[in-house]
Amino acid sequence: MKPLLLSLLALTAAACTVKPAPEPAGFEFLVVGDMPYNASDVRMLQQTEQWSHTHEIPFVLHLGDYKSGGKPCTANYDNDFAQLLEDFAPLPVFYTPGDNEWTDCDRFEDPNTGAKYSELARLTEVRRRFAVLPEGSASLRAEQQQSLPENMAWQHRNVHFMTVHVSGTNNGRDHVAVDDLELALQAANAREQGAVHWIRQQFSTARANQAEAVVLAMQADMTVHAGFHEQTPCTAVARGNQACDAYVVIRREIQQQAQRFKKPVLVIHGDTPEFELVRDFAGNEASNLWRLNAAGDAGVNAFGVAYGTQDVTEVRYTGDLMQPFEMKGVFTK
Question: Which residues belong to the signal peptide in this entry (predicted)?
């Protein structure tokens, strides 16, 4: 009887054992870009804050350009953006700089001095205020690049994320109106070299951790030069436009790292009005590489024609190798 009793007890215990539910493969996060430029954008972001607190959103990405490029770079815009980050708390917001808040600032005069802004001084100020790990990011194992603290990385559900400082205006190499060109060149080269090193390092970490996917976020649309000057990397900075592609080195690095990683890779950017999720970043040379042009760059042009999609992007990682990423507008659907 004893062996039979023991067997019955074992079967009963096994039947009563509750296995933990498997962690769902998919999750969503939010992407904000090219806003707020106006009162309508502000209202949308306020609604987004409320929406995010009632949904299971682990973090928010802000792709830069937190002010219009047509307005002076006063401290009011910096203060408003700081308040925006605070309002989203405790939800962490990872920010990567856009051209509107630093490299394009030398279009305007500083009302406090009457002189045009220094774009390098503006970048220093942006870094001082916003190149810090966001509140609530410790649980995501967030880290910063030592040399370029605006470049950050973190993990969620075995997906590896990183921000890379890549801005418009030919990555800060064109239209340097005020700053010494040699100093501007040194800064541009340091950003490019730092970006390449950061991308390489983070893909290495992703491989070591056996991450399922990698997501990179930046402000600039690096495909705008493709097919035009893409074989001509920039080696200088200038007061005006240059016939070169400041993104070619970074674009090639992402392509090569995606090929080596072999699993899904997503590049997210803003700065241009197309709201799309496509696989045209590297074509057949890296078929596992997707590109998301996020919503946000929207308005009415000089001819009165509306462009872009005014919205916040909800991105879903599905865990499916064939279609690993999905996107939709939070408000426009």
Answer: 1-15
